[in-house]
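Hello forum,

I keep getting stuck at the same step: I have a sequence, I want structure tokens, and every attempt I make locally crashes halfway through. Rather than fight my setup again tonight, could one of you with a working pipeline run this one for me? It's a single chain of 278 residues.
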Amino acid sequence: MEATGPLPHSPVLPEGRRGPHGPVRRPHRTGAPVALITGASSGIGAAVATRFAAEGGWRLLLNGRDEDRLGKVAARCDATPLPCDLGDPAGCGQLADAALDASGGVDVLVLGAGIGWAGPFATMPPAAIDEVLAVDLAAVVHLTRRLLPHIVRRNRGHLLFVGSIAGAVGVREEAVYSAAKAAVAAFAESLRYELAGTRVRVSVVVPGAVNTPFFARRGAPYQRSRPRPIAASRVADAVWEAVAHERSEVFVPGWLQLPARFQGLAPALFRRLATRFA
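Reply #2:
Ran it on my machine without issues. Output:
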């Protein structure tokens, strides 16, 4: 079923009524644009789902591998849960099929699922290498490949990739995670060229440290004094702004673009400073 309502990349987005305590969600309507959000069982993905739900007028499909947590987020956001493990090679196909069966088409694809591993690369277990690359890179590429033809045929939509400052500058003892996020940024840039002339937009949101369970799950807590972790809701706001205003790249917080640009302009000096000051 083709969506006939406001396009997610048009200046007029689905409108949510405002109540005395903020946005009031409206029931789904025929033709409501569809957003599929991965990694939505917690952290950034859950915050993004909450942000879209607060805006009103969206049909939300939420993916995560923790079925219980995902169900709670979906209930809170009046969304459809589509649990599956994107670390499983078959998971991307299962999720794409389920999303299309549930909605008939996806207008906004937010790729927020991700895992990390911290420690010297020489000690990283091969299984951990495979898992990080599977979830943070391979799943992003394969899920996009499964859904992009449908989006292009509709000639409208938005691909939103959640990157990381680690992918922009590299981070010590996070070599594979940094490599995966850098590859995602290059993948997004390549897609922009391929999709030029269409009404399909591509955005990358680049957060720094975010206060989520990510660090506990990677096996090492966040120990740097600066920058301090930001709330996941700030990243969710950046995702919404990127979709609403067709911004190709958003750093969160904004000052993070400075080290990223500096690294590109003076890589040797940047490396010396980064090695000295970590």
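The domain at 22-277 is CATH 3.40.50.720 (Rossmann fold). If your local run keeps crashing, start a new thread with the error log.
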